[in-house]
Amino acid sequence: MSETGALPLEAIQSEAEPEPKRVHPAWMTLRRLFRHRLFVTGLILFGIIAFMAAAAPWITDINPNRLSMRNKFLPPGGDFVLGTDNFGRSLWSRVVWGARLSVIIGISVVALNAVFGTLIGALAGYFRRLDNLLMRINDALMAFPAILLAIGVTAMLGPSTANVIIALGIVYVPRTARIVRSSVIVLREMEYVQAAIAAGAGHWRILRHHILPNAMAPMIVQLSFLFAYAVLSEATLSFLGLGAVPPTPTWGNIMAEGRDFMRDAPWIIAIPGVTLMITVLGLNMLGDGLRDVLDPRLRIQQ
Amino acid sequence: MLGVALRRIASAIPVLLIVSLITFGMMRLIPGDPAAAIAGLSATPDQVAQIRINLGLDQPFLVQFVRWYGGLLQGDLGRSLLMGKGVVEVTLERLPVTLALSAYALVLTLLIGLLAGIVAALRQNSVVDQFAMMFAMIGISVPSFFLGLLMIIVFSVHLGWLPTGGYIPLTENPWGWFLTSTMPAISLALLQAGLLARITRSTMLEVLRQDYIRTARAKGLPARQVVFKHALANALIPITTVVGIIISLLISGAVVTETLFSLPGIGGLLTQAVLNRDYPMVQGGLLLVTAFLVLINIGIDMLYAFLDPRVRYE
């Protein structure tokens, strides 16, 4: 079984004799996570970006959209830490505000997946009758190439941040639902769940107290990778001109605008590009670490 | 074998039906009047009305629905507003470019990914392993358009070795094709190569721990024979299913890569269609590409059944 401590330990604890030296399983998991080098590195990398996103108004003093033709194409260093673009806008400001948008989109897509992915996956896995219908729709949505479907949906809805979130939700919720469903199917047949049914527990109670807590580990792992996909897909969409409308500072927008000047001002592309890479790298490392600790059956680094 | 094929095709039919329903419904996601959205802000009411008639949007919902499926069965997915030609025709014209690029990228993916994964597994926890896995981690984290832009800056702008974009068909001039396709293929392949290296490594490690590998070693077979004949042959079977996912990712990635390098493939076509509000093209192109991928996946599942006899008897 999973070692997350998500087994119905609470139930056991409340009824068993209190043991003085007992460490809460969540603490043990945390301790193992913080000993995992990849996880810690990922946490630091992503932490930097998350800090930039959260503190954007306080760590930038220039409006990311303020034009200043006198200062255009300034290389990094000097008055502008990361240089300026073709309109003399501060790249530091633009990249930091871009981080804020990327993180908002990442969190929103993850939240959509956590809610709807769990709901659909749990319904399909637990109620056999719904399984066929829900999974056929799921399979169809997963048959579309991910970015193409996102492009198609944003094309129809129109380019905006909210629509990017909706499109990425439609693309990734089926993938999350499938993962939740496969854990639920296994858990439903476990003896302790059968015991709960025999004891007369209702469906809602069984799902909430006995099945979902144990299905969390693979989903948390999935959500951390999903955050990375969401940030990457958003950058791709806005690079193609399908994300938030310029001059909104998104990493994809900055890179798309920098394309025409890549010969003489390659930093306009390189700075948001490297920031995007650090974000995705951090999240992927975080995900690998979480998987190794929470879901040992799937570990790669053996 | 035939049973596997029939079962697999039967299970693909509902998927394709729902895929076509979703693409049909996509037009309805457009807020407001699609005809007005296509015509743009400066259009006269007459122009909007004309577009509405051309797209059949003036008909009742049920009629549109029947027409869509009627057309589908006859291989007619409407006309591209931008190209003025049938959607199917335009897609088939552009398909070879995307296929050639994807095939090139797939070869690179398999070469790099399998090699890195196998070497890493055989030298587990060594420097080589750590280096290969670091490469794979970076591979799955670098956005392909960023890698493409970096390569353009280095190899085209500064070194002048390769063209920044454009396309020469393989059939006209293979060397020209090679020059125009190499940077796109590399930028497209890196992500997949990283994924494949990680999966290959873990699959190989799992196989190497099996009892029959220990037996083969114990009876004194040379290491090379154990690795290639016993371990690799069995590790490759689960990896074939990954190839289906990789092909889907390649076609997805081609959208960005083709736009970046101005290649006249399906990806570039769809991006143009989207930016120009050519909705029938978006709808039809998406449906065709997805149907194509479903077929490829059926092929891969059959290959899997062919390679692994256990699947056939399930």
Please give a handful of descriptors for the protein shown:
heterodimer, A: 302 residues, mainly alpha, 12 helices, 0% strand, elongated, B: mainly alpha
Q: What class, by secondary structure content of chain A? A: mainly alpha
**Using only CA atoms, what is the Rg of chain A?**
23 Å
Number of strands of chain A: 0
Counting copies of identical and different chains, the oligomeric state is: heterodimer
Q: Which pair of protein chains has the largest interface, and what are the residue counts? A: A-B, 47 and 55 residues
Distance between the termini of chain A: 18 Å
How would you characterize the overall build of this protein?
The complex is a heterodimer of chains A (302) and B (314). With 302 residues, chain A is mainly alpha-helical. Chain A has twelve helices and no strands. The longest helix of chain A is centred in the last third of the chain and has 37 residues, at 203-239. The two termini of chain A are 18 Å apart. Chain B has 314 residues and is an all-alpha fold. Helix content of chain B is 77%, strand content 0%. Chain B has 13 helices and no strands. In chain B, helix 6 crosses helix 8. The longest helix of chain B has 38 residues, at 223-260. The radius of gyration of chain B is 24 Å and the shape is globular.
